[in-house]
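Cross-posting from the modeling subforum.

Setting up a comparison between two proteins and wanted a second pair of eyes on the formatting. Protein 1 (sequence, then structure tokens):
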Amino acid sequence: MTDQPITLIGAGLAGTLLSILLARRGHRVRVYERLPDQRREAIPAGRSINLALAARGIAALELADVMPQILPLLIPMPGRLLHLPDGSQSFVPYGQREHEVIYSVSRPGLNRILLDAAEAAGVELHFRQSSVDANLHSQQVLMRDESSGNPWELPMQRVIAADGAGSPLRRALAHGLETQFTEDLLEHSYKELTLPADSFGNHRIHKNALHIWPRGGFMLIALPNLDGSFTVTLFLPQTGPESFATLTNEIAIDEFFHRHFPDAAVLMPQLAREFLAHPTGIMGTVRCERWSFEDRLLLIGDAAHAILPFHGQGMNCAFEDCRELDRLLQQHTDWSQAFSAFDRTRHPDTDAIADMAFENYEEMRDTVRHPKFQLQKILSLELERRFPDRFVPRYSMVMFHDDIPYAVAFERGRIQQDILNQLTGSAATLDQVDFDLATQLIERRLPPIAGIRSDA
């Protein structure tokens, strides 16, 4: 399996990580990237500046032996800090164990480390080379040199497309195989802004938390950066009375932020100017019926299954793709079998996390404000303490248990939510919960999860 080179299209996070794993297995690997080398040239804005790294992503990075270089980039976030409309704040922990944290990490910083590691592993990196189309019959990928504008053809032999949510190779694959794919855009868009550090370079709001300003139909979030600043992201409808369509001048922008997010607005002196200068991003979910063609083409990451960012799993899911493909290549000596197995076994999990990401958006912008949600959150942690191998909160299964498939987390989460609804139907506090009923429901409906320990 090592005689023929493997070609990856896309030197983003998934493409570079997979190239490292393949090179470490002894393969000759080459990567083609549309943009310039971001280690040497500034890349135009347009993608999130920082991301949330969790257990699934960490497991894949550890497999590639790059975590020691990445650790200095990480800022732990053990929970959400809610900024409520009345000015009060409420910290909601993600879990109840020391290791149950997620980490804010710089996307460009992480990508640069992966590019360096890929080069060190012997991967060939070719920049300003973009995929345009592919022909499954002639088995050629049409490429373009972005510097000269000249087209050229790449043989379609063990090509893995990690070229993002707008992947031309996904469209070519679906057209060539006469299969379906969907690109469902959210009616909300986003804009990234900056909450700067103080004059001493310190964080001006709590450093170790993911900050959320939930406002029902929209929300603001903030993730910490190493330089003391926060990357602040507004998620807002595209049209309507409270929307991007109405925020077209500095007066309207300042008034909107001071009305809905006054504690953040006073710490952002360049708010309106930044708002007008920064691009407005779109968000959507990509589902694709087929990801592979023989041993010639495979889609991974956002090219195969882009999801909404509201569960912090886009990068983690793509990294898990890399880990899963690496595992399948150990099992199969035939590339077409490995590609087909990845296509077949991975779909249920990516469909599940896509659904959970959408549900988490509704939770983050609205449900977290409600007393019933707060009670159910406390109760879910108590049930986990009492039944550690049976009741694991869905968020914990997704973020902290890389050995629990997304599809299992989705299904068990549905059952657990039904149990929580029954137990809190007439209860307003934890003392009023019927724990005898809880025991009956959990033991009847939630079989033990293999490998979960009471001290996990």
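Protein 2 (same layout):
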Amino acid sequence: MTRPAVLIARRIFPAVAERLAAHFDVETNDADTLWSREELIQRLQGKQGVFVTTGEPIDATLIAACPDLKAVCSMAVGYNNIDVTACRARGIAVTNAPDVLTETTADFGFALMMAAARRITESEHFLRRGAWTKWAPDFFVGADIHGTTLGILGMGRIGQAIARRGALGFSMNVLYHNRSRLAPASEAPIGARWVDKATLLAESDHLVIVVPYGPASHHLIAAADLALMKPTATLTNIARGGVVDDAALAMALRSGRLGAAALDVFEGEPAVHPALLDVPNVVLTPHIASASLPTRLAMAHLAADNLIALLTGGTPRTPPLEPTTC
């Protein structure tokens, strides 16, 4: 019997590729080349499955050109690079990798928030360029974390994990805004309080953004929203690039309209808006919030489990995504 053929679109851990090779005829991308849509279409000819990350465009054009494709399995949580509606219309199952990166991403988001508040990146650059010659009482003074108000925009799994860290570890007052309010049993242990978006922006000392990206959340935080925030506040984005208007954020940081920011995601990444590179009061990292070795391995193995199940008649560990969830 002919084995199904699959494509691994980016270089992944060898152990995960070996698992897939035990079930399928596998084409890998060991050079980790960033293929264009046209190159990806060419490599998907005759393939029944594809293992993807966040960067490969699985859109309607590609789907129409790949008649053998039956399963698209991503090792990421976000899937704004995948047209789920077009996939489902063709009978192609799409899975992502929720849950396994929640705690690691929350750790990193909290670390970014603290780094911005306490001016860690800014002060390190100062030290490295040899500018440290004396101490002063106002030397790199920043903002406190403990006892302040933590605002969370998007209260899914990661948002709730960040809220727990703030409330239970740092005695923070937790406000949040979400399309739907949490059940009282989820709010009560951390004292979280749902507020409207304007109130969240106005009252937060530290705002952390963890909403999914889509047309409705494009530039969810723009210049008018930043104007509602305290001039001493910090903003941390670990959601997706495009949720925040990076140009407006850079302007707010430079003008003193906002105290500091920390960004792990960027609109048009890996490109970063040039204005963000020139302001000192921002912490910048290259989309690595889930980048602990155990977590990245778990993400990749989950995607492999799903791909194996979908192409061998099994049940995937995570249910296929529906268009209504996009």
